[in-house]
């Protein structure tokens, strides 16, 4: 991407803006164990970045249980996550400075998440950051969630820019697949314990946290 082609930056939410991925894992793990599934805590990493109904479907396809009700199980998980965010949610390192940097440089700012609107509202209210975003897009009611690119394509369309003029910031493999399929440049900021995994090679660039974002953008864009 050349400096003249970067017009927008689109952030994933969970694990990028708010430290919620561990809570998703705990809620998913406990709910599945309560249903009788013999999964490990690490197994929940397989579903990172998926929409909640896809998460429930993922486990049901592998370990079917009686009285399957996707929406009810999904609600149990989401309610736990929302409760945590409202009580203890904190921003990831460098979020506010990164958002201020993008706004000061006249970059359009988007949010593209697989999370439900209830969780989006909880995060934006808890962190008080909704005013930064020119477009907020959830895959909750789309035909497909990530790794399908629809939520990213919708965000670019709403921002009024081409996908090729966007950088997507993700912490999950499924999210990176979605952004790459949307023909966007990609930045991976994986959890510290996952940084050395080879799968992040699909990203155009990998950073340790959002404090590194201004330096990276300055290297590819002249203002």
Automatic annotation (TrEMBL):
Pfam family for this entry, one: HAD_2
Keywords for this protein: Hydrolase, Metal-binding
Metal-binding among keywords: yes
The keyword Ion transport is annotated on this UniProt entry: no
SUPFAM superfamilies: HAD-like
InterPro entries named among the record's database cross-references: HAD-like_sf, HAD-like_SPP, HAD-SF_hydro_IA, HAD_2, HAD_sf, PGP-like_dom2
GO molecular function: magnesium ion binding; sugar-phosphatase activity
Family of this protein: Belongs to the HAD-like hydrolase superfamily. CbbY/CbbZ/Gph/YieH family.
Name of the featured protein: Hexitol phosphatase HxpB
High-level lineage: Bacteria, Pseudomonadati, Pseudomonadota, Gammaproteobacteria, Alteromonadales
């Amino acid at each position: 991407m050349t400096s003249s082609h970067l017009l927008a930056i689109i952030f994933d939410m969970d694990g990028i803006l708010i430290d919620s991925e561990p809570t998703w894992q705990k809620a998913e793990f406990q709910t599945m164990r309560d249903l009788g599934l013999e999964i490990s805590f690490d197994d929940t990493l397989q579903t990172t970045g998926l929409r909640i109904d896809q998460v429930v479907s993922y486990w049901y396809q592998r370990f079917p249980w009686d009285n399957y009700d996707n929406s009810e199980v999904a609600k149990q998980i989401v309610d736990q996550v929302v409760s945590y965010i409202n009580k203890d949610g904190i921003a990831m390192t460098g979020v506010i400075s990164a958002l201020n940097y993008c706004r000061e440089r006249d970059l359009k700012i988007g949010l593209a998440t697989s999370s439900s609107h209830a969780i989006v509202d909880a995060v934006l209210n808890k962190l008080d950051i909704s005013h930064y975003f020119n477009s907020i897009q959830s895959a909750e009611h789309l035909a497909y969630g990530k790794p399908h690119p629809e939520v990213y394509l919708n965000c670019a369309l709403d921002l009024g820019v081409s996908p090729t003029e966007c950088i997507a910031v993700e912490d999950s493999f499924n999210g990176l697949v979605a952004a790459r399929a949307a023909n966007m440049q990609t930045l991976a900021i994986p959890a510290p314990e996952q940084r050395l995994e080879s799968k992040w090679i699909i990203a155009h660039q990998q950073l340790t946290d959002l404090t590194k974002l201004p330096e990276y953008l300055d290297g590819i864009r002249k203002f």
